[in-house]
Design a protein that fits this description.
The chain is α/β, with parallel strands linked by helices. 32% of the residues lie in helices and 21% in strands. It has a seven-stranded parallel beta sheet, with helices on both faces. Helix 3 packs across helix 6. The longest helix has 21 residues.
């Protein structure tokens, strides 16, 4: 029986993927085979040696010590695209909020006093301050063209907007899902110079931290609206407030309140609502549960942030999986250890991702524990187990 430790509330639709006959699931599970979480800070936790996989019911993995788990041969799964529609809708809401000055206008109305006649007079006198603009014909720059960025870009085209995208890591598969009408920016500076609206859909890393700073803000079109529903830290909060105060930026709409943002009249900071819909939480839970289940039962890897994509149909009842450093002669040593015990390899697949390699081997006969131990003892092997 496999044991799954849940560190946050995971949607029941996802947990139902683990049949009670084969899985023990809950927040008090001891010696778990896998951990499922959402926002729990795993950096501060001593992760049990029994853990074979970690599943994040969401896209970002900043709360997970990915490098430490990679050294242990533990794949970290996530749910890319499962919350894409939820975030896309919030981006669209952010654009509408900004271009029509809705929050400022609402705040103005909430402060009105007097009789209905007096209020009506104040409305007529004050509404001119909140005149906005429409979206058709405007240009939006989309930084990051993964599942969310593509969805935003394609929908904005349907709204009559011009779309410029920038993503140096765009895959061929991702490009097929992106409308051919999305213009390609050669670099970030080119996108910043063209866009009336800019939205970010990239992870937080050393490269993207403060991607939008004072220097970047100076390269933008006057009156630009900036939206960040990706990660706090991509935009320099103090720099963007200075740009708003100087009249260069129209508004900043984000999902990450900070002391410098709260209370600014041209900033709308939301309490991290990007994926906070019932549908997104269910989609994320189902996706990551299926990924973890397939890995535990079959050794397959899908949507892992640190392991290569490896999926092989089971050809026999006997399967070994191995994670190791991506260095020469590892596959030869693994094969030699199996041959020494008289095991015939029926099928094998080996893939690598960065410094990590992963091998799935099906054999024609049962795999003795002695073989697993011999392979685990090879220098550079981080995990070996029979599934």
């Amino acid at each position: 029986m496999f044991k799954i430790l849940t560190l946050n509330n995971i949607a029941e639709e996802g947990l139902r993927r683990f049949p009670p006959s084969d899985y023990q699931v809950g927040p008090d599970v001891q010696a778990p085979d896998a951990i499922l979480l959402r926002s729990y800070n795993l950096h501060a936790m001593e992760i049990p040696a029994s853990v074979k996989a970690v599943g994040r019911a969401g896209a970002g993995v900043n709360n997970i010590p990915v490098d430490r788990l990679s050294q242990r041969g533990v794949p970290v799964f996530n749910a890319p695209g499962a919350n894409a529609n939820a975030v896309k809708e919030l981006v669209l809401a952010g654009m509408l909020i900004a271009c029509r000055n809705i929050c400022q206008a609402w705040d103005f109305v909430r402060r009105l006093e007097g009789s209905d006649e007096e209020i009506a007079a104040q409305v007529e006198a004050g509404k001119k301050k909140f005149a906005g603009t429409e979206l058709p014909g405007r240009t939006i720059g989309v930084v990051g063209l993964g599942a969310i960025g593509r969805s935003v870009a394609n929908t904005c085209l349907d709204l009559g907007m011009q779309v410029v995208g920038y993503d140096p890591m765009l895959t061929v598969e991702g490009a097929w899902k992106l409308s051919s009408r999305v213009a390609r920016a050669a670099n970030l500076e080119q996108l910043l110079a063209k866009a009336d609206y800019i939205t970010f859909h990239v992870p937080l890393s050393d490269v993207t931290r403060h991607m939008i700073d004072r220097e970047a803000l100076a390269k933008m079109k006057p009156g630009v609206t900036i939206m960040n529903f990706a990660r706090h830290g991509i935009v320099d909060d103090e720099a963007v407030c200075e740009a708003i105060d100087a009249g260069r930026v129209h508004a900043y709409v984000c999902d990450f309140p900070s002391r410098s943002l709260i209370g600014h009249p041209r900033v709308v900071a939301l309490p991290h609502l990007g994926a906070s819909t019932v549908e997104a939480e269910v989609n994320c839970a189902v996706m990551v549960a299926e990924e973890v289940k397939d890995f535990l039962e079959n050794g397959n890897i899908h949507n892992s942030v640190n392991f290569p994509e490896v999926r092989m149909p089971r050809n026999t009842d006997y399967r070994l999986v191995v994670a190791n450093a991506n260095v020469p002669n590892m596959l030869g040593q693994i094969s030699t250890a199996m041959a020494a015990e008289g095991l015939n390899i029926h099928d094998m697949i080996n893939q690598s991702k960065g410094e990590l390699a992963y091998t799935v081997v099906d054999t024609d006969s049962p795999i003795p524990e002695s073989v697993v131990q011999a392979i685990a003892a090879i220098e550079g092997v981080r995990m070996a187990r029979v599934v």
